[in-house]
Amino acid sequence: MADNVKPRVRVPKTASKDEVIQIKTLISHPMESGQRKDKDGNIIPRSIINRFHVTFNGTDVIDVTMEPAISTNPYFEFEAKVPESGEFVFTWYDDDGSVYEDKHSVEVS
Amino acid sequence: MTIPLRRAALAAMACALALPALAETVPESTDPIVINGGEVELQTAAPAPEHLDGALDEIYSGWLFRDPDTQTMQTDDFENPGMIFVDQGMDEWNMVEGEAGKSCASCHEDVSESMKGVRATTPKVNKDGALWSVEDYVNDCRTNRMQAEALDWNGNRMKNLTALISMQSRGMPMDVAIDGPAQPFWEQGKEMYYTRYGQLELACANCHEDHFGDWIRADHLSQGQTNGFPVYRLKQAGLVSQHNRFRGCIRDTRAETFPMGSDEFRALELYVASRGNGLPVEGVSVRH
Known about the structure:
A: mainly beta, five-stranded mixed beta sheet, three-stranded antiparallel beta sheet, 8 strands, 52% strand, B: alpha+beta, two-stranded antiparallel sheet, 12 helices, globular
């Protein structure tokens, strides 16, 4: 299992109805591509986050398939329209089966 | 035909040699680094400390010499990739290890209180008269109080901790002592700073004092200030410690370098830090 995996998310706490808000996410992860070799010439096994999924009140916002060429500590920035108060759920799926989750609520006034 | 040409070329060269060497290039602006939309503001220039005796008029943060894209990364803690390691340093801070069953937090409790100002005044002379860097204090605690193994000077765990400790002094001006018991170390560091090393015969001063702001290969030289360390270097995609940076520079002069954590580098660290006395600690800076 990859060590020190920690998701970081920035979502505004409040928004007006139907406002398009900016969301930034970053997760610390080595994203070992499976292409590299160690000192003895053995291939270092692939260990990446292969999927990033975001929902808002149960509705899909984005669903990303991630590939080995993506860099260490992958960063995603995107926009989402918020029609009502609710909760964003961010989920990252690791090759090793681990699932990392973070939740952030937005208050619509 | 070739002889007059060669002679002309030689004459041109002689002419060029007679010109004074190009001097440093002062940054166009010295805007502060505004972080998190104004939450933190770091000055990027300060009057040169007196001990420099006119060698520099003003001291500048290395931030001023970087590309706008790189500069922007440091203006938001979310986009500063170094902050990941500060978070990991926090985990390290709370991790119980060693025979004594202690973590850093067991004694030092809240890092934001206990470590405030530490980075700004280190390296300093300890109670036994030895010059210590932050790394030395960490390992002293680990081996004596925690009875755990010392951390590798340049290992990730150590760098995460020094990043965390450095962050607690963000915005505080560098203020290392250079007199009293620190003076012999400072003199040693100064001697090193002006000593030409390696096959290329370059001293720190040849680049960072005489030519800051000028091109070196495809990059700009800075004054080599250390107030931004540990830095997140895009080239390495990770944190770089001061001693690692010293080693890199000396290696690039094609010299045998001193090891990280050596007394020579501690002395150099003190001297270089003193050249930046007055510039704010940047916590974890972002550089190329």
